[in-house]
Recover the amino acids of this structure.
């Protein structure tokens, strides 16, 4: 396995971006991020880390010092403090790398939600290669979420929370997309069509950046 620790200074990222591929996956709630990540995991062996899933698991973990705080933030449609989310992601990456067949290729879904998260993660954990941004109209996302809420059991799949989540995404996450776009590090994917049609575009954009060839070589 390649060296993944960057040791040049105490302020270096934990992981060397020459060895570890990190792709941020952003889009409004219900844009289809999870579905497309599952496709890439199945076909190319990425490790899919969902910031939201990690937070929900931590809020339910017995003895967690931050569980109740996470629960309150999620219920109110607010963004959990940066330090908590970044640490959970770093720990999850380390856990995957401890596995014998880790491919050191990560899709980080639903993150970064704010500029401070983006800057902190890239400074302390690992700079990203680029961001997959699933661009979907709000009315389509709302319909998907309400349908999902019938079976998901998620406390935030209800009309009141959904409205708050849309507002939070536009106000805090879109500036992140715009920031990376200026750096040439965004692939914007039209996400209102069927999952298969969207996935075809995802594969084309990932191939353009030579990511899938690397994934296939190690899969």
């Amino acid at each position: 396995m390649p060296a993944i620790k960057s040791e040049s200074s105490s302020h270096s990222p934990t992981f060397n971006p020459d060895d570890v591929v990190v792709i941020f996956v952003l889009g409004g709630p219900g844009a289809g991020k999870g579905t497309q990540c599952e496709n890439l995991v199945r076909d190319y062996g990425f490790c899919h880390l969902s910031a939201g899933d990690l937070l929900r698991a931590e809020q339910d973990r017995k003895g967690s010092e931050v569980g109740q705080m996470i629960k309150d933030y999620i219920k109110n449609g607010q963004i959990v403090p940066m330090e908590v989310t970044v640490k959970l992601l770093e720990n999850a990456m380390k856990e995957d790398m401890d596995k014998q067949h880790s491919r050191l290729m990560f899709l980080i879904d639903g993150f970064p939600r704010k500029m401070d998260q983006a800057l902190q993660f890239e400074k302390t954990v690992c700079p990203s290669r680029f961001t997959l941004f699933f661009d979907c109209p709000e009315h389509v996302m709302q319909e998907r979420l309400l349908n999902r809420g019938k079976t998901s059991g998620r406390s935030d799949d209800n009309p009141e929370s959904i409205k708050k989540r849309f507002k939070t995404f536009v106000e805090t996450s879109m500036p992140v997309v715009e920031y990376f776009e200026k750096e040439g590090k965004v692939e914007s994917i039209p996400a209102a069509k069927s999952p298969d049609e969207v996935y075809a575009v995802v594969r084309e954009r990932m191939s353009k950046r030579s990511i899938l060839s690397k994934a296939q070589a190690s899969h």
Remarks:
- The beta strands are 21-27, 47-50, 105-109, 130-135, 186-190.
- The mean pLDDT is 89.
- The first helix runs from residue 33 to 44.
- DSSP finds nine helices and five strands in the chain.
